[in-house]
Amino acid sequence: MLCEYCGVREAEVEFLDVSSRGIRRHHLCKVCAAKLAINPELLDIEGYPQFQAYGGNYALERCSRCALSFEEYRETGKFGCANCYFSFWEAILPEIEKFNGSKDYRGKAYHRDSNRFALFDKYVALQRRLKIAAAEEEFELAADIKRQLDKIKRILTYEISR
Amino acid sequence: MKLVDRAGRLPDWLSKAKNLTEKVLFSSAVLKRNLLDYPFPNRADESELRDVQERIAVALELLPDVEGEFFSLDGMSNSECELLRERFVRVNCEGEKSGRGAFLSEDEQVSVVVNGNDHLELEVKIGGLNVKEAMKTANDIDNFIGSVVEFAFADGIGFLTADPFEAGLAMHLGVALHLPGIATSRQLKTLSEIVQSANLRITPVFQNGLGNVFRMESTRQLGASENEVYTAFTEVLDLVMDLEDDTRDMLLEKFPLEVEDRIRRSLAVLRSALILEFEEAIELLSMLRLGLSLGLLSGITFRELDETMFLTQPQHLKTAFAENDKVNLDSVRAAFVRSRIQKVSG
Predict the structure, then answer these.
(1) Which is deepest, A5, A75, B11, B113, by most CB within 10 Å?
(2) CB neighbours (10 Å) of residue A45?
(3) In the 8-state DSSP scheme, what is residue B112?
């Protein structure tokens, strides 16, 4: 089954949308699940997933991405992945608010540049290929990869130094 | 450079301290970050940890203006790992080691623990009182790494960490403080009350608070910007330094003879001891540091004393000075300290 959101990758995560209408299941790939989990308004399948606390138990008992349970969090004091914030943050918010004296983030903004992320991914992949080429003594190929690496490096470091 | 070759060399945050005050040994800024596409280290499998490690190591390689090396904990001996810890890099030497490591810049101002509690824990340390500079450098490095790998960040929460109480700024500003007045006059409780009420924490630098060196760090992550946390931190720091001055004045006023006796006795022991355990050495050196700041001793600088404290740590002494395992480390330490305090007079 393909991911319901991107329609590209294989769906690996069952995503529970708990609302007053009941529980709906969505099948997502890991990447989309992670992205949606911290930016739920992107999920325009059946509206905004509502996670409601009732009777002291939280609707989602396990994180839909890493399968951490709330009890496991209580034992270790650690979340298992970014998605756990979507699953459990509301449940522990009163404690967090007490600790910080606030629940609002007021720090620096985080600007994402998908072009740079993609370029870096390519750089990492090329580095892996360079190691293989060098090990197999494919010197011409290695030299070509090095040139590509240098070019990407210049772009990635130029924008910052500028 | 191999890790063991660093043992005889001092990190810049110790040997090149600017604004070195008698109370602040170094300043630090810690930022904790995780990569969005991977589970946090406690839930990640080995191949995910290796992927994270590779990506962070490559990002650090690309980092402009910072030269350094990446040390993998995989296959690292316990003594080497201990050496890293004694250089104040917060790696976990007891836990699982595969897929874990640490980056250390040439000057050791920048360290990054990879796959500890979080995917990366960046720390910038600068000698003396320079919290703002440490914060700025950490921020620049963070901006670069976060521009090439996507961090786990949620609007409204901030940077996401394994421990949700660290989410938000995911930042700790800190200083290492020498507080012999507060510690010897049993005012540590008052100190921790002041500190806790301001969302800060205080922890010993050496085991059990030996040497009266403590690290004071900010813990607030939500409800304040980085700069507001910095301002609040410096205000409390001023208070703590005033408290230290007040307790020293009080001690000198009430027990002048006892204070001077303790300082001179410490010097005498360090001068004549043939066997010196680390715990004893660090306590006595702390008294010398106090003697120097009270004007009772001279002939040595704070920096030289701090370097001596640092180099007498067990693994450093062993790596740099002991030729083999049979050498009595405590006698090596006694000789080393003796040579370092030769010129002290008082």
Answers:
(1) B113
(2) 14
(3) E
DSSP H helices in chain A: 30-38, 70-76, 83-100, 114-135, 139-161
Location of structure tokens 């604004």 = B19
| Closest chain B C-alpha to A20 CA, distance in angstroms | 24
Among B31, B42, B43, the strongest candidate for a mutation testing the A interface, having the largest count of A CBs within 10 A, is B43
Nearest 5°: the CA angle B80, B83, B88 is 140
pLDDT at residue B6 greater than cutoff 90: no
Tokens of A86: 């979507």
Question: CA torsion, points B2, B8, B11, B14, in degrees to nearest 10?
Answer: 170
The answer to whether B126 and B13 are in contact (CB under 8 A) is: yes
For residue B34, list chain A residues with Cβ-Cβ distance below 8 A.
82
Q: What is the pLDDT of residues B214-223, one digit of tens each?
A: 999 999 999 9
DSSP H or E stretch at residue A57:
strand A57-58
Contact (CB<8Å) A85/B167: yes
Establish if A100 touches chain B: CB-CB under 8 angstroms: yes
Q: What is the dihedral of CA B288, B291, B296, B300, to 10 degrees?
A: 50
- Cβ contacts of A80 on chain B, cutoff 8 Å: 39-40, 42-43, 162
Write out the H or E segment, with its range, that includes residue B208. none
Task: At B98, list the tokens.
Answer: 């595969």
- What is the pTM assigned to this prediction? 0.85
ipTM: 0.88
Looking at every residue in chain B, the average pLDDT score rounds to 92
A153/B223 Cβ within 8 A: no
Of A21 and B74, the one with more pLDDT: B74
A151 touches chain B (CB under 8 A): no
Contact B64 A92 (CB under 8 A): no
- Given an 8 Å threshold on Cβ–Cβ distance, is A100 in contact with B34? no
Asked if B95 reaches chain A (Cβ–Cβ under 8 Å), the answer is no
Q: Is A123 an 8 Å CB contact of chain B? A: yes
| Number of other CB atoms surrounding residue B94 within 10 Å | 8
The single-letter code of the amino acid at B219 is T
Tens of pLDDT, residue by residue over B77-93, are 988 999 999 999 999 88
Cβ within 8 Å, pair B37-A34: yes
Say which range, A36-40, A154-158, B157-161, B242-246, has the weakest mean pLDDT.
A36-40
Consecutive H or E run containing B153: strand B153-154
Say how far apart CA A156 and CA A162 lie, in whole Å: 11
Helix (H, G, I), strand (E, B) or coil at B225: coil
Residue of A90, A114, A120, A150 to mutate, testing the B interface (most B Cβ within 10 Å of its Cβ): A120
**How far is Cα B33 from Cα B235, in angstroms, rounded to an integer?**
27
Contact A100, B158 (CB under 8 A): no
